[in-house]
């Protein structure tokens, strides 16, 4: 059943056709699940990138905090 019906002339045409061979009109793209693939991959990659940036930022912040604490430990304020 690799056929569908032209929405303009109602003739039976091939499923992957972009132009009707009877009325020569442009046909709307047939719904294909492969079109959603890039969007899914892009969204997953976006989430991963966001998580990576977040973890990198948090790691940098913690490293900086630790470094600041160590730095502060070297110069103990007098009077403790
Ligand atoms: Zn047609």
UniProtKB/TrEMBL annotation:
Keyword Transmembrane helix annotated: yes
UniProt key word Membrane: yes
Keyword set, alphabetical order: Membrane, Transmembrane, Transmembrane helix
TM helices/strands, residue ranges: 37-57
Identification of the protein by name: Zinc ribbon domain-containing protein
């Amino acid at each position: 059943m690799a056929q569908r019906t032209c929405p303009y002339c109602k003739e039976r045409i091939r499923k992957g056709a972009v132009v009707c061979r009877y009325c020569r009109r442009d046909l709307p793209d047939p719904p294909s699940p492969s079109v959603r693939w890039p969007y899914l991959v892009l969204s997953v990659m976006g989430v991963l990138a966001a998580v990576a940036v977040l973890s990198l930022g948090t790691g940098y912040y913690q490293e900086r905090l630790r470094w600041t604490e160590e730095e502060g430990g070297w110069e103990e304020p007098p009077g403790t």
